[in-house]
Design a protein that fits this description.
The protein is 34% helix and 21% strand. It contains six helices and eight strands; from the N terminus they run E-E-E-H-E-H-H-E-H-E-E-H-E-H.
Length: 248
């Protein structure tokens, strides 16, 4: 995220929520005043690391209550380094639609019960594996305020593909992908856009010319594409402000 407002007044902490498969840690970033809108930030393949925590904090600086659940809670791995890609693949492969939906429902229950924020005032924003997770949750849980997918592989192909469930999506969706991302080839982008169109979903889909996978991850300089990242974040904030406008 390249547009970074002053984050000095935000507070961060960890909490724990109950899921069908046991307790799950959730990173929480709070703005400097009570928020009536929230964003659930879904991790890449490497856990709720410094980058994901930073994204949550930046959302809080924009006035959102941001929560980043630890989707690795079932295996206890926690955080992997970016160079541990080979170790990450079987971990995310083991997290299918049922597990994703269970975890997101647990966060929504927490938001409603403990923070007074309903699903209709909550967005999901996922990155990489978290992008697939965000799309998956949107196909199974109704009433979200919005969904934002950054370069989510495995939506249209693979063992956990859910593009055929797009008809169940009832929240507006924004998708970002790089034209040079080998994990989401053109035909998969077309399949996702076609399924959303056929389902009557309100969506925006952007392909960033010359950008590859993880182009918005400034924690990985060799993959980061500043111009594309800036544009993607500008579009994301405009999209969320449209569908979850601030009320104070």
């Amino acid at each position: 995220m390249t547009d970074q407002p002053n984050s000095a007044a935000i507070t961060t902490d960890w909490t724990t929520v109950s899921t069908a498969d046991g307790p799950m840690r959730v990173y929480v970033a709070r703005p400097d005043r009570p928020a009536d809108r929230a964003v659930i930030v879904l991790q890449e393949a490497f856990g709720v690391n410094d980058h994901i925590q930073d994204i949550a904090s930046r959302y809080a600086a924009h006035g959102f209550l941001a929560l980043a659940p630890d989707l690795f809670h079932r295996n206890g791995v926690g955080i992997l380094a970016y160079e541990q890609h080979a170790e990450a693949m079987p971990l995310i492969g083991a997290i299918g639609p049922d597990e994703i939906v269970s975890d997101i429902e647990a966060v929504l229950t927490h938001l409603r019960a403990e923070e007074g924020v309903p699903a209709s005032r909550t967005a999901i924003n996922g990155f990489c594996f978290g992008g697939r997770a965000a799309f998956t949750a949107a196909t199974a849980i109704s009433g979200f305020g919005a969904t934002v997918v950054f370069y989510g592989p495995g939506i249209a192909a693979g063992p956990h593909a859910v593009v055929d469930r797009a008809v169940n999506i009832d929240a507006p969706m924004l998708l970002h992908v790089g034209s040079a991302d080998p994990t989401i080839p053109d035909e998969q982008v077309a399949a996702i856009e076609g399924a959303l169109t056929a389902a009557g979903v309100e969506f925006e889909s952007y392909v960033y010319e010359g950008a590859g996978h993880a182009f918005a991850c400034d924690a990985r300089p060799h993959m980061y594409v500043e111009d594309s990242a800036r544009t993607a974040w500008q579009r994301t904030h405009a999209f969320l402000d449209k569908h979850l406008p601030a009320t104070a």
